[in-house]
Design brief:
Blueprint: E1 6-11, H1 23-31, E2 32-37, H2 45-53, E3 57-60, H3 70-73, E4 80-83, H4 94-97, E5 103-104, H5 111-126, H6 129-137, E6 155-159, H7 163-172, E7 178-182, E8 193-195, H8 199-204, E9 208-211, H9 225-230, E10 236-239, H10 248-257, E11 261-264, E12 285-287, H11 304-318, H12 328-333
Parallel strand pairs: 1-2, 1-3, 3-4, 4-5, 6-7, 6-9, 7-8, 9-10, 10-11, 11-12
Length: 335
């Protein structure tokens, strides 16, 4: 696009997390005329649609107002929706994805942080760090345990092999783990990574399973009691994806007996456990409250997701191809 400056709009609710100042906003203003509204909750559907139709690019993220479905049929001036974060189903309707308006998201922006989280949980569980440190806190010193082990030679199953699963596998390979993947959507696997033909086969052949699948009708509750029973004594379940992929009652029953170990950045339902839930006190259950990918230290001037957004906006302005465009299949599988 040439000539007139781009009109950029963020239409949010009061809880919108779109910053109103700082390096990212400065870069946005260098690209186009930016309007940030966080009062969309007080607007009618027609008012929201009118504002969106009067911009070139709609910027969406956590706390954005829902784009009216009619915008897909009559977009007005709108030519691009740049979703700064990953999820979008709460504010971008499927009808817009299926329209001629391109929609992108942050792509692989969160992959490193979540893959690192899974790696941290796996190492912490495999080394029995939590029971050891709690033993010291209680006045003990060396805690003799039967399940303390090594990642070298560990049979690690990956349930899901999207961008996060691939980053996790890359982190694990130098440690000498034996990797197997179950993901019917993964067309090719790299050398050294085996394919499980079924989810049963993945659990039956693994010492530890790390979950990286999206939450869909097919994956919800798919980590069942029967599949958990296939893991060996001392087996490990890592979940940095979505809690509802796991039959939580079945997993907690295994943990309460002390047979399995788990590192859970997410839990089922509301993604929170009651203050008096016994799982909070189990030595074999690491709970990190969906916080391991939330960054607040040693941050760059621009977050990676912001760099992706800015890169796509510059590509759009120059008439170049966009990265991480969302189609119907990706949208339906999106968590």
């Amino acid at each position: 696009m040439t000539g007139e400056r781009l009109r950029l709009l963020h239409l949010g609710l009061s809880r919108s997390r779109m910053p109103e100042e700082g390096p990212f906003v400065d870069e946005l203003r260098a690209i186009g005329d930016l309007t940030i509204r966080k009062d969309a909750g007080a607007m009618s559907v027609e008012q929201r649609a009118a504002l969106i139709r009067d911009c070139d690019v709609l910027l969406t993220m956590w706390g954005s107002a829902m784009v009216p479905i009619d915008v897909a049929r009559d977009p007005g001036r709108l030519r691009y929706v740049c979703n700064i974060t990953g999820e979008m189903k709460s504010w971008v309707p499927l009808e817009l994805i299926e329209s001629s308006i391109p929609v992108t998201n942050w792509g692989d922006a969160s992959a490193d942080e979540i893959a690192e989280a899974a790696m941290a949980l796996l190492l912490t569980a495999a080394k029995d760090i939590v029971p050891q440190t709690r033993h010291i806190e209680r006045g003990g010193w060396r805690l003799e345990r039967h399940h303390r082990g090594t990642v070298r030679g560990l049979r690690v199953g990956l349930y899901g092999y999207g961008v996060i699963g691939r980053r996790f596998a890359a982190l694990l390979q130098p440690f000498g783990a034996r990797l197997t993947v179950y993901d019917p959507f993964a067309a090719e696997l790299p050398e050294g990574v085996a394919r499980a033909e079924s989810l049963d086969a993945l659990f039956a052949g693994s010492d530890a399973v790390s979950i990286h699948a999206g939450l869909t009708a097919e994956t919800r509750g798919s980590v069942t009691a029967g599949r958990l029973a296939m893991l060996p004594d001392g087996g490990i379940v890592i979940n940095t994806a979505r809690g509802d992929i796991v039959d939580q009652e079945a997993l907690f029953a295994e943990l309460a007996r002390g047979r399995l170990r788990a590192g859970l950045d997410v839990v089922a339902g509301s993604d929170e456990l009651a203050p008096d839930h016994p799982a909070r006190r189990w030595d074999n259950c690491i709970l990190t409250a969906h916080m391991l990918a939330k960054l607040s230290w040693n941050l760059p001037r621009l977050l990676y997701r912001e760099e992706i957004c800015l890169d796509n906006l510059r590509r759009f302005a120059a008439g170049e191809g966009l990265r991480f465009r969302i189609d119907r299949e990706k949208y339906v599988r999106m968590t």
